Each structure stands twice: as structure tokens, then as C-alpha cells.
């Protein structure tokens, strides 16, 4: 039985989103986050389908009409009623692999990043979507706590992650590093794990998800957050992370091509002033395009140009994520790609 953890650039059927309910934590920002999600749906639907889990029939009807007005092809939009606790599909969505070259979705346990937030409905969302016929491939449950934002892969057997998240006792307290590596190898088909010991973003609830820090652009290329301000409190940890990234090697011993991403100026919550986790590493790769979070910052244009060079042949699409970081995530955190052959026909 051959398992393969799919890289984000593997051909996709769709991107999954979870629409916020008015009574969620997004309540005070509902119009703003809905505008961001609308922009994402419109952009993604130019290239592939979008699956949206919605809280109720009223929302489903409203969004169907709204996206029709915005020119979204109904053949590329699936709105499925499945209530959730929050919007972070990257972490409660399924993880795509192939088994003997056939698509398979793995449903891992989601606990609200170690019990920080209510997550019971999020944790059952994938199963409920499967039960109503959303997926065309098998969906199998796994008893490991694992979020999609905690891992990245080159698609060739290498998995990248952070010690702060995967070794945190609030996730799988009975498993040490060798045990976690063994589980990841057995369940995802990877052959080695690259661990980052340094790096974090203030305001991040995830205990250091790698998708906020370092990302694969292709099997030979890593893009990473680089702090160039020695006076910024992030500087020591991100400088140490940069040293780690420079020392990483591919399976054949060759160094990675490194793409440093610019550092946006500090953004703070307008209510209580705490630092928000703005990062350009939280980009999303889809079929033929890369969606990049932007923050109304002077560094936005440099980030777009840098990622354009890292993804030749892809359209680079900016998405305003100032509202998203108010709830401590960004663009990639809101999404989960569904590999080719995994989404059932709809409409």
C-alpha cells in the first residue's frame, strides 16, 4: 500500500471554506470577514470549484444569490449546510493523500489548538460533509490530533513542521517526537520530518503553525518569513529560524533555494492593542494561481513580486486580510484544498 501526502500544488478539485455564523467570534466583524471571503470565492472560482460549509439554509440561499450577482459560475460553487464553531478550514478540514494513486481524505482530531476554543462542531465537520455525499473518495478518521496548518510537504516524502506545535503537550501528550514521527510516516506516507525549533508570531493561537512561517513553493524551494527589524520583538526567534532554514537539506543533501518574504509593519488590534499575526507566508496555492494575503502595507508589493518569482506561470492575486488577522489567522488558515478526484459532482 503506497501512501503519499500531497503537496499544495497537486491538481485540485476545489478549495474548502467555512462560512462564519453571526453568533460566532466573527460577529462584530461579520460584514468585513464576509467581504474577504467573497473576494476569495470570486478569485478561486476563476480557476476551480469552491466548497463552502454554511451554517444554515438562510445563509445558503443568501450566498447562492450573492455569488450569482458577483458572476460566480454556479457549476463551480457548492454550498453545503454544516454548522461549525469557526472558520479555520485549514485546521478542521481533511488532509489529502493518495493511497495506491487513488485520492483519500484523512479526518484528524481538531481540539481548537489544544483546547483553547470550542471545537466540537469543527471536529465533526468533515464527517458530516462526507455523510451528505460531498466527497467522491473515501474519508477515513484518524485518532491523532493534527491540524493542516501544522504541516507542509514537498510531495516527495518530506514533511516540514515546528516543535512548538507538534510536540506541544496540549496536542498528543502521550507521544514523544519519535512516536509522532512514526505516526506521520505510517499515516501520511512521508519518509522524513524536518523540525523547526524556532520562530513564532505574536497573536498566533496555534502554537507556531508552520504555514505562518515557512512554506514549500516546489520540492526545491522554501519561502520563509524574514524579520529585518532588530528592534522588533520577533527578531531573535526569526533570525534563529532563518539559520535553521539555511541549514535544511533536501533528501539528496542539496540545499533548498530560499525565498525570504518581507516583514510587514506591526499591526495591532484596535480594541485592546495586542499584536496581530500578519504574515505573507500564509499564501494559498491553487490551480494556476497563488492567493497572497496583503495588509495595506508598503511591503505588500514586494511580497507579491517575490511570490510571483517563486511561482512562475501562476497568477498572483492579492487578498486584503486585515480583517482576518483580527481573529489571529490569515488567508491560508481559512482554506483547505481538496485534491483532484475527491469532490463529488454537485448542482
From TrEMBL:
Protein name: Agmatine deiminase
GO biological process: putrescine biosynthetic process
One Pfam family cited in the UniProt record for this chain: PAD_porph
Keyword Phosphoprotein applies: no
Gene3D superfamilies in UniProt: L-arginine/glycine Amidinotransferase, Chain A (3.75.10.10)
Domain of life: Bacteria
Molecular function GO labels: agmatine deiminase activity; protein-arginine deiminase activity
Keywords assigned: Hydrolase
InterPro entries the record matches: Peptidyl-Arg-deiminase_porph
Keyword set includes Lipid metabolism: no
Amino acid at each position: 500500500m503506497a501512501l503519499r501526502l500531497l503537496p499544495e500544488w497537486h491538481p485540485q478539485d476545489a478549495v474548502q471554506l467555512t462560512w462564519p455564523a453571526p453568533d460566532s467570534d466573527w460577529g462584530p466583524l461579520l460584514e468585513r470577514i464576509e467581504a474577504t471571503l467573497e473576494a476569495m470565492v470570486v478569485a478561486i472560482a476563476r480557476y476551480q470549484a469552491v466548497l463552502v460549509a454554511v451554517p444554515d439554509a438562510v445563509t445558503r440561499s443568501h450566498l447562492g444569490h450573492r455569488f450569482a450577482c458577483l458572476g460566480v459560475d454556479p457549476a463551480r460553487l457548492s454550498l453545503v449546510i454544516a454548522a461549525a464553531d469557526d472558520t479555520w478550514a485549514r485546521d478542521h478540514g481533511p488532509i489529502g493523500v493518495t493511497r495506491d494513486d487513488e485520492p483519500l481524505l484523512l479526518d484528524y482530531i481538531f481540539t481548537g489548538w489544544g483546547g483553547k476554543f470550542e471545537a466540537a462542531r469543527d471536529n465533526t465537520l468533515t464527517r458530516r460533509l462526507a455523510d451528505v455525499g460531498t466527497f467522491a473518495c473515501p474519508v477515513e478518521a484518524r485518532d491523532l490530533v493534527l491540524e493542516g496548518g501544522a504541516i507542509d510537504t514537498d510531495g516527495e516524502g518530506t514533511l516540514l513542521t515546528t516543535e512548538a506545535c507538534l510536540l506541544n503537550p496540549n496536542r498528543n501528550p502521550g507521544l514523544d517526537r519519535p512516536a509522532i514521527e512514526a505516526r506521520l510516516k505510517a499515516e501520511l506516507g512521508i519518509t522524513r520530518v524536518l523540525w523547526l525549533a524556532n520562530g513564532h508570531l505574536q497573536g498566533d493561537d496555534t502554537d507556531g503553525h508552520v504555514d505562518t512561517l515557512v512554506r514549500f513553493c516546489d520540492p526545491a524551494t522554501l519561502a520563509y518569513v524574514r524579520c529585518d527589524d532588530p528592534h522588533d520583538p520577533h527578531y531573535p526567534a526569526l533570525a534563529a529560524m532563518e539559520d535553521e532554514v539555511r541549514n535544511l537539506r533536501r533528501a539528496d543533501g542539496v540545499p533548498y533555494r530560499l525565498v525570504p518574504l518581507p516583514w510587514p509593519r506591526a499591526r495591532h488590534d484596535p480594541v485592546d492593542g495586542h499584536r496581530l499575526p500578519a504574515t505573507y507566508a500564509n499564501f494559498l496555492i491553487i490551480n494556476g494561481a497563488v492567493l497572497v494575503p496583503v495588509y495595506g502595507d508598503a511591503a505588500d508589493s514586494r511580497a507579491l513580486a517575490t511570490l510571483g518569482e517563486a511561482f512562475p506561470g501562476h497568477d498572483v492575486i492579492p487578498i486584503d486580510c486585515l480583517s482576518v488577522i483580527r481573529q489571529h489567522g490569515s488567508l491560508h488558515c481559512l482554506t483547505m484544498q481538496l485534491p483532484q478526484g475527491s469532490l463529488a459532482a454537485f448542482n
